[in-house]
């Protein structure tokens, strides 16, 4: 309800109001899917809009913000690393007749940790975020079949949340360079067919709003909110702002702290505020010359 069917209900309920308005410009509603799975649905829409040369004066993302104005959220990228060695009974380990995938995966993870600490200490920072730097985390790992067997396989996934989307390419390049220069030569000494594959998975861009854009200024005026707020969690806003170049803000009903909880709900007062705000922002951009603008 809060994240974010409340806002969908708002815009659908406002359709009769929009249709009755004397408008000089169209209003577009963009519904996506699988946002919670890493924004995997919206790229198809973005690609379609790019092909059509779509332009807009502004974009309103209705993620729950307690009707405050958010002008930033971190992007996200994840990678799956698959390490392939050679199995043998553990009594014959380290005789160049096997290759321990878990141990070499551990060395790669150690390098990723080094990159993470360097990015923390020397990379870009934004104090408006609770976590001001881009944190890298190894979150999942699996490998091996038994304690008495040298593991032939190990797979792990690491990810980063970042304010500069381009940093993801730098991270990927550094990890691949380390693997090819340091890890694979050692693995192949033990097992010539050893390999490491690094595959990029879910990825979506950071959202970096423009405080000087009219869309941002109008939203702040209507919400009476002039505090700069940014979220460490992800939204689809970066696709519209950073990919399509449409001035974007995030303003929606309900607090973000309510998202992903059992018995999610949105207060009626928040829904009413969202309806009023959405109507007003639409009037600003679409009113005919003979209509009074706010």
TrEMBL record:
Gene Ontology process terms (BP): L-arginine biosynthetic process
Family, as annotated: Belongs to the peptidase M20A family.
This protein's GO CC annotations: cytoplasm
Gene3D superfamilies documented for this protein: 3.30.70.360, Zn peptidases
Record keywords: Amino-acid biosynthesis, Arginine biosynthesis, Cytoplasm, Hydrolase, Metal-binding, Zinc
Required cofactor names: Zn(2+)
Cellular compartment(s): Cytoplasm
One Pfam family recorded for the sequence: Peptidase_M20
Single GO molecular function: acetylornithine deacetylase activity
UniProt key word Amino-acid biosynthesis: yes
EC number: 3.5.1.16
Limits of the Peptidase M20 dimerisation domain: 71-179
Name of protein: Acetylornithine deacetylase
PROSITE patterns: ARGE_DAPE_CPG2_2
């Amino acid at each position: 309800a809060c994240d974010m069917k409340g806002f969908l209900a708002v815009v659908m309920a406002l359709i009769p109001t929009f249709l009755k308005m004397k408008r000089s410009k169209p209003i577009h509603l963009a519904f996506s899917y699988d946002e919670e799975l890493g924004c995997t649905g919206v790229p198809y829409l973005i690609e379609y809009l790019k092909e059509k040369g779509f332009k807009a004066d502004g974009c309103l993302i209705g993620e729950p913000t307690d009707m405050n104005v958010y002008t930033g959220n971190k992007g996200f990228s994840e990678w799956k690393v698959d390490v392939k060695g050679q199995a043998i009974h553990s009594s014959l380990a380290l005789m160049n007749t096997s290759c321990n995938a878990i141990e070499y995966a551990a060395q790669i993870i150690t390098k990723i940790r080094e990159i993470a600490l360097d990015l923390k200490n020397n990379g870009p920072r934004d104090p408006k975020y609770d976590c001001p730097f881009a944190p890298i985390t190894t979150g999942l790992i699996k490998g091996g079949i038994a304690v008495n067997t040298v593991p032939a396989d190990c797979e792990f996934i690491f990810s980063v949340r970042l304010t500069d989307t381009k940093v993801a390419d730098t991270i990927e390049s550094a990890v691949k360079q380390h693997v090819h220069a340091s890890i694979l030569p050692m693995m192949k000494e033990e097992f010539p067919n050893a390999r490491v594959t690094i595959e990029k998975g879910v990825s979506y861009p950071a959202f970096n709003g423009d405080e000087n854009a009219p869309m941002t200024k109008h939203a702040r005026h209507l919400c009476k909110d002039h505090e700069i707020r940014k979220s460490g969690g992800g939204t689809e806003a970066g696709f519209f702002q950073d990919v399509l170049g449409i001035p974007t803000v995030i303003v929606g009903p309900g607090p973000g702290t309510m998202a992903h909880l059992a018995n999610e709900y949105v207060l009626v007062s928040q829904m009413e505020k969202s309806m009023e705000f959405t109507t007003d922002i639409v009037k600003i951009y679409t009113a005919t010359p003979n209509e009074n603008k706010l």
